[in-house]
Design brief:
This protein is an alpha/beta fold. It folds into two domains: 187 residues, 3-Layer(aba) Sandwich (Rossmann fold); 270 residues, Orthogonal Bundle (N-(1-d-carboxylethyl)-l-norvaline Dehydrogenase, domain 2), CATH 1.10.1040. The chain has a nine-stranded mixed β-sheet with strand order 1-9-8-7-6-5-2-3-4, sandwiched between helices. Helix 8 links the parallel strand 6 and strand 7. Helix 13 packs across helix 20 and helix 13 packs parallel to helix 22. The longest helix is centred in the middle third of the chain and has 33 residues. It is globular, with a radius of gyration of 22 Å. The model has no long low-confidence stretch (mean pLDDT 96). Keywords: Amino-acid biosynthesis, Branched-chain amino acid biosynthesis, Isomerase, Magnesium, Metal-binding, NADP, Oxidoreductase. Pathway: Amino-acid biosynthesis; L-isoleucine biosynthesis; L-isoleucine from 2-oxobutanoate: step 2/4; Amino-acid biosynthesis; L-valine biosynthesis; L-valine from pyruvate: step 2/4.
Amino acid sequence: MANYFNTLPLREQLEQLSHAEFMETAEFADGVNALKGKKIVIVGAGAQGLNQGLNLRDSGLDISYALRKEAIEQKRDSWKNATDNNFTVGTYDELIPTADLVINLTPDKQHTAVINAVMPLMKQGAALSYSHGFNIVEEGMQIRKDITVLMVAPKCPGSEVRAEYLRGFGVPTLIAVHPENDPEGKGWAYAKAYCVGTGGHHAGVLKSSFVAEVKSDLMGEQTILCGLLQTGSILSFDKMVEKGIDAGYASKLVQYGVEVITEALKHGGVSGMLDRLSNPAKIKAFQISEELKDIMRPLFQKHQDDIMSGEFSKTMMEDWANGDVNLLKWRAETGETAFEKTPAGDVKIGEQEYFDNYVLMVAFVRAGVELAFETMVEAGIKPESAYYESLHETPLIANTIARKKLFEMNRVISDTAEYGCYLFDQACKPLLADFMKKVDTDLVGKNFNEGKDGSVDNVQLVQVNEILRSHPVEVVGVKLRKAMTAMKTIKTV
Ligand SMILES: NC(=O)C1=CN([C@@H]2O[C@H](COP(=O)(O)OP(=O)(O)OC[C@H]3O[C@@H](n4cnc5c(N)ncnc54)[C@H](OP(=O)(O)O)[C@@H]3O)[C@@H](O)[C@H]2O)C=CC1
Ligand SMILES: CC[C@](O)(C(C)=O)C(=O)O
Ligand SMILES: [Mg+2]
Ligand SMILES: [Mg+2]
């Protein structure tokens, strides 16, 4: 199988990459009807599988789970997930032949084996869905020509797909139909109905392509969403301990700080997040985030370049073939970091204190969101897609860190995201070594405003505000957040 993207002529690559049409609410007026009464079989009951299935069933659709024979016989977690929630569970042979829609929600690494096992069993004219296009785009999987191939990709961890649905909201979602596989022209109707079933239409849906989804999703998860949150958390904790801050306090500030800080990002964008700081702290956060952007830009560009060329997927697939040796080594190293091993102290940290005592994280988040957005857009990804993959999803990933630190984040995200996160983290930490030498407790651990009179240069403040508010991620964010009227606030402290 050849990398599908690399087989396309340049003009076609750019065309597919640029798909990101924001869909108006009226386009979902038909609700879940296109899938009502259809037999929907999900393969895999893990992070996305279980949570999407719960939402789809609550939306009135007929959901059952096809699992590997061994998973059923050994009553593995996936079997427990599905049966504890009263779903019908069966083997591929039992469930796939009668399915109208098969949803493949197994790890990307397993897709080739899963599709090769499932495809011969699928009935003529059935549909096959993915939540990430890696198998189609990077591995070049060829699907039988009578099968409709679609994608409904929630821009968020599976746990949050369920949590947001239960809050009456949803998560921004990219939907797509593979141009090589839409023999009956029903792909978009199925994708829309499926997306309504997960609640995605409440938060914003982009009519995208497999190519655009893959090239943006990989970039977001490797850089700002997971990689930089990991690097920033570890460096922040280590710095506080080095400077004599109580380890329990440091652990709590980092674990929950990223969630509290990015909650402001979710509602008010980058400028809304910086508005939570005093004026002097805002100017400082602006200055150090500019410095961080300069240092990290080449690394962000390298990640995007390697994703576009297929170098990243080639390297990761080599690791798959090599028994995941790098993934497992990096996972073990992350588990051994002092941040991961130090429990959050039993100490009260007020909501505002998370901002005042953690200006460094505000700067990391601003730098990471803007850099990821800028790099994606430079590569031909549309601003709407880049916004979801940078700014909107950061708070949703931060929620997982607040639950159980980096272990929880890396457990909940896909294996592909986990690999990319470590890859970035390995390269980023040394890159920031000199920068971190200059960081003191005014930026992390203690109140930035302590001992200062709060005065600022008016002209400088106006300039900073102007630069923040006019960044393209803010411009598109204002537009996209208007479609998120049902967005719920999360109480964190
Ligand atoms: N994690 C996330 O939040 C997100 C994931 N995605 C995408 O969703 C898809 C699913 O990812 P994710 O939910 O993380 O996956 P998980 O790792 O959580 O999937 C685990 C499930 O897959 C099954 N499985 C594993 N290996 C095989 C195999 N060889 N054959 C059959 N079933 C297998 C497991 O069953 P068993 O008990 O038999 O091992 C289990 O039910 C991926 O394409 C991913 O990129 C998209 C957005 C976010
Ligand atoms: C965090 C990245 C993601 O793409 C996601 C949750 O959207 C994944 O692959 O897990
Ligand atoms: Mg994603
Ligand atoms: Mg992903």
